[in-house]
């Protein structure tokens, strides 16, 4: 579970993706070291979400190679990647809307533990206790009985995060985890994410528009523009990069 | 022999296109699989049966007027149904929309039976279309050429409307992205009502146009709807050109099937439908929102 | 945590009600009760797909029909005893569900529905046209005495036993981890996939379970009738099953059950009053969707909520 | 572990079940026992579904006939009660209704089926419950041969007889040298085509018989079959089709100029001629028919029936109506001969009486397959008609002795089916 620092857990080489003639990703190289927290920033349409979706297996790459722990995982299905230790959240959080918050988490545990096809109801009782503890940690234990459809946007983000944690991933991809949230909520959620990531020794790759959040959480930052990696470095380096400021910071946020 | 069957298949295909065009239009815009499409087709046929004696004593113009009037009435029924029923349940799961169209099938079938009785009836062929055209040593019905022409006209009109009118722009927008229309500040409900009316008009038109070429009874709906589904699926749901290609392909497959694989024609068409669906799905394990 | 236990009192009360109906209906009425029970199982199997798995099938009757033909063919063409034939029906249905399901779960939403339609129509057409083997439109008759030659009432009791057992098993499934997984996939296959389980496999599992149970219903239906006809796999039965689930109530385990009782009663008694019975059913269906989209079960729950929230004097 | 929407409140569930139980009890308990006095006839007809267009006349004629019999004091002094049910043209529904009619409503006789499937399903119930059952529309020979059972009789020429009659008719046209057979792609169509071809080969070894065509039942677009048939340059096309599909064939054929180049021989019933009316081709269509009223008008009984039918319903009876009425009158005669409705006595009477009916003065049902010696009428369709719709002229009545399979043939077929 603990990753040795210095070895890349994720390596993307020349990852490209086209939609018809539109080039969403034009050959992205990116390597994540185990345990690092990496932010992926860039203007709208830069290809950040596409990149996350290609790494997560939701979209197939048109070209390039992706390695997870040194193993070539290009073209694997999302569930295969998930079993290799990759967990992710979505831009619009994906939960089981008609099920209760607790059921959502129990369902995530069932899948993660390989009991998805079990007929034993004993398993449910055992997992319910674990689910309770995790809900407590992410701060939504009070909502356990509510349908996921009924809780606030931010709480649903927390729920989805908890569902990902239930899978005990080593690499965590978060696609705009704070989109549509208020300032305070945003920081609280990302603090929680950072805390859990550090505590569990997870590697984190997150897409984020809020530069405050990025600078607060990220060890390193990758800047994308027009489907390419434009710059990469520590928070300070990126903050100091004039080009970045011009094309990105100046323009948008 | 082969050529004759191919020509004939294309003719039959165009008839299928007329049937399917409204279904694919409605699906494209509203994502509703309208089971009642066959019922509106049937309604168009019966209305034509009712109206032809009023306008036509064998004249083509009178027939055309009767068919158009029948189609307009079918459009009114479609629009009414959209406003009174479908509009209330656009937010419900798509299954519910489908179920109400099934309910409409049951209702229309029995209403037609109540009004026109259970027996077969016949609409007379307008005199001008009654003959046959000789090509080589084969004959083809003038009527089928007229249908082919009508089909092309419908395609042309639909393209013209979609390309060059404001309604068409909205239609395209609605087909591509439902949310966008709302962003444009247009009342989405009006678009849906208009689409339903247009789709129902096309169904009624097809029913009216086809009526002199065959039997009309209250069971016509089921015969038509399965054929229309096949065409629309093979053509790509919501795709007008696809529906045209799909309709012509189905017509030709059926026509050639009579020569080469008579027992398998029906199964074959369903196999093609399944294959098209599967091939389209390949490489589409993409995000679905 | 409210583990969904089976309330045996409800089961017993239901069984008693059915037994009373059988006793009161006599030999002539018992087949109607049998039909209701089999339709309840058939609709409940579709309900597993629709309410839990989020899959709308337009070809579910194929498995009902295959269940019927599995029995009829085993006995008439392969000379197996009826008891063995009764096992062949669900087996054939389950096998074909595996084959069709493998293809169908590659698609979702309306595309899934259209592919099931194609599969269902292929099944129907083969049964209808393969005279030498399936007897074509005139079906297979006379291969066994209807209802094993039992008194209609006893056969209804036997069917009651089988249907209750199947529904209890289904209840077990939907409340077990597998049921949660099936519902998860019904809600959001992407989430399931991103969590590490292949949603298609889950859908396929549900599809095979549903197909097999439909096959059980079809086999017993063929046994009741003593015949098998292509109609049993046709679009008519498919639409019946969809209508039953919607009338009874989506998102409810009892939906298939309630729907079957309501629909079979309507279909049996409305034609005695009016020739245009389809019109009546169409209007009822319309009203249900508009005023109680969650069907009979949903309506019950709504009434229940209202009763509970209103203070009693 | 269950989401609220799935959780049934127990009281509610109980209430629901109670309601359901009550509904079922109320439902099946309906229909209290009645006095055993009247003679009850259960009519299981495909009022809705595919047979709808055919059984309209049947239901009307049977209702008329029952009223007439009752007006004359019923049978053996007992009134007749007709209990009508809609099979929806579904075999399972037909069988269930037949069972209900016998067991709950205590009907003495079953009739009314139209599609072969429903007929065979009801015949199985008739056999099991030992209740006499006769068919006046559905005419699959299976019910007389492979699936024969002693409580069934057929008052029509069955499929084999009709096809044989059509072959006789075609063979009689010396100028016809080449024939294309066609049939709906189901059991009845295939049986008809096979029988027609076999019979014709015997009668006219010189005739060229093309490969048969099999459009699907009720096919709405017959054009591919029309072009395929015409490509064979036939003198005549034999088509075992009927109803809506036949109307499609004729109207579409007309557009192709079919009737200028070939003749069509097909099952031509009055309802089809009424539906086509002025759209019927003036020449080129010949038909075989079961009970064309216009050809029976010389028979006072038939004339009286046609007039009574017209007076009551305002239309002329179609073949289905006429033969259903004739079938009912045969039953009435059998009940009187049997002195009651005891199933075995009735069946003995059915196979021993000779009845003067609408279709001739010596109708009888033979004993080994319970098939009536029903004639088949063949002739040429003409639009020159006093009735406002086409009829047939030059009609020849082909007697059953020319078309009924022999006892040996029937036994051979039965043995082959084992």
Distance between the termini of chain D: 57 Å
Largest sheet descriptor of chain D: 7 strands, mixed
Strand content of chain B: under 5%
* CATH class category name of the largest domain in chain D: Alpha Beta
Secondary-structure element series of chain D: HEHEHEHEEHEHEHEHHEHEHHHHEEEEHH
CATH topology-level fold name of chain B: ABC transporter involved in vitamin B12 uptake, BtuC
Rg calculated over all Cα atoms of chain B:
19 Å
* Total domain count of chain B: 1
Total DSSP helices of chain D: 16
Estimate percent helicity of chain D.
Answer: 40-55%
The quaternary organization reads as: heterotetramer
What value does the Rg of chain D take, in angstroms?
Answer: 23 Å
State the order of secondary-structure elements of chain B, H for helix, E for strand: HHHHEEEHHHHEHHH
Global mean pLDDT of chain B? 88
Mean pLDDT of chain D: 91
Helix content of chain B: over 70%
User: How many domains make up the coordinates of chain D?
Assistant: 2
Reported for the largest beta sheet of chain B, the result is:
2 strands, antiparallel
Which labels suit this protein?
heterotetramer; C: 313 residues; mainly alpha; ABC transporter involved in vitamin B12 uptake, BtuC; two-stranded antiparallel sheet; 13 helices; 2 strands; D: 418 residues; alpha/beta; Rossmann fold; 2 domains; seven-stranded mixed beta sheet; five-stranded parallel beta sheet; 14 strands; disordered N terminus
Q: Any overview of this molecule?
A:
- Chain C: InterPro entries: ABC_transp_permease, LivM-like.
- Chain C: This is Amino acid/amide ABC transporter membrane protein 2, HAAT family.
- Chain C: It is a multi-pass membrane protein.
- The complex is a heterotetramer of chains A (253), B (289), C (313) and D (418).
- Chain A is globular and about 55 Å long.
- In chain A, the strands form two sheets. Chain A has a six-stranded mixed beta sheet, with helices on both faces. A four-stranded antiparallel beta sheet of chain A has the order 2-1-4-5, covered by helices on one side.
- Chain A is 39% helix and 25% strand.
- Chain A is α/β, with parallel strands linked by helices and 253 residues long.
- The longest helix of chain A is centred in the middle third of the chain and has 18 residues.
- In chain A, helix 4 crosses helix 5 and helix 5 packs parallel to helix 6.
- Chain B has 289 residues and is mainly alpha-helical.
- In chain B, the strands form two sheets. Chain B has a two-stranded antiparallel ribbon.
- The C terminus of chain B is likely disordered.
- Chain B has one domain: ABC transporter involved in vitamin B12 uptake, BtuC.
- The mean pLDDT of chain C is 92.
- In chain C, strands 1-2 form a two-stranded antiparallel ribbon.
- Chain C is built from 13 helices and two strands.
- Chain D has two domains: 197 residues, Rossmann fold (3-Layer(aba) Sandwich); 157 residues, Response regulator (Rossmann fold, 3-Layer(aba) Sandwich), CATH 3.40.50.
- Chain D contains 16 helices and 14 strands.
- In chain D, helix 2 links the parallel strand 1 and strand 2.
- Chains in contact: A-B, A-C, A-D, B-C, B-D, C-D.
- The interface between A and C is medium-sized, with 40 and 27 residues.
